[in-house]
Amino acid sequence: MYFFLVGLILSCCLANGAVDINKLFESMTIEEKCGQMTQINFDVAQKSGDQTNYDDNPINITILEYAIKQKHVGSILNAPYNLAQKSSNWQQVIKTIQDVVQETDKKIPIIYGIDSIHGAHYIQESVLFPQAISLAGSFNLEMTKKIAEIISIETRAVGIPWNFNPVLDVGRQPVWPRLFETYGEDPYLVGKMGEAFIKGSQGNDLKNRTKVATCLKHYVGYSLPFNGKDRTPAFIPENMLRDVFLPPFEKGVLAGSPTVMVNSGEVNGIPGHAN
User: Fold this and answer.
1) What is the DSSP letter of 263?
2) What integer pLDDT is reported at residue 17 of this predicted model?
3) Which long-range contacts (CB under 8 A, 24 or more apart) does 88-92 make?
4) Count of structural domains within the chain
5) Which residues form the Glycoside hydrolase family 3 N-terminal domain (predicted)?
6) In a domain, 37, yes or no
7) In a domain, 157, yes or no
8) N or C: which end of the chain has fewer CB within 10 A?
9) What would the pLDDT profile of 188-225 be if each residue is shown by its tens digit?
């Protein structure tokens, strides 16, 4: 937990210049540490009703201030109303959130994450690309890297530094409804395509304001649910886990991805978040 929190704080304090991370960490209460490990969906702090004007700020400022100032929330994900927003509205949202952070004692920036999977599709007028299964069919690593560069530029331009991609699940369950999000059935190809996406997204320096941090998902065995339905139990022998499902994640870690999303289902009777 210590190393996770220090890494989390360090990653989001880089923009604020030199910060003594150890002193900051030691000064935090248990409640603040738990808050930093808490991520909420945007709709928690969203104005009620439907979005009718894309120029209006969708944030319920009272709830946002409570989440950040009282509960010390460290991260927010997803789009307002689960809809693509104008670039200007995204910038307004991110600024509002970070402005509230500046009113806190520790001033640890919120880490905002989004699913920019086949393009920055939660940003209006962004470039859309084929899904991962189609890119895998091209076997074109350079094209995949270039696509990741474009997605990174458009995502970071609105103030979002974290992308929940690439999907490194190996697609071996044909009735699983999210099969199209994978790079297919071959662990080697999945690993190589994921590696190319990471390099395109992050470059050599995550402090570069045109780059975003990647997130490897869904660790591990998420793509082989026994009955084919999403987020349902998987039963996978350990040798198959090691030979088929783990290698792409190993390659992703070695490529420099700083975060991993855990399987929200269960494998062999053990929930991913408790394994």
Assistant:
1) P
2) 54
3) 88/55, 89/54, 89/55, 89/57, 89/58, 90/123, 90/158, 90/159, 90/160, 91/158, 91/159, 92/57
4) 1
5) 29-271
6) no
7) yes
8) N
9) 999 999 999 999 999 999 999 999 999 999 999 999 99
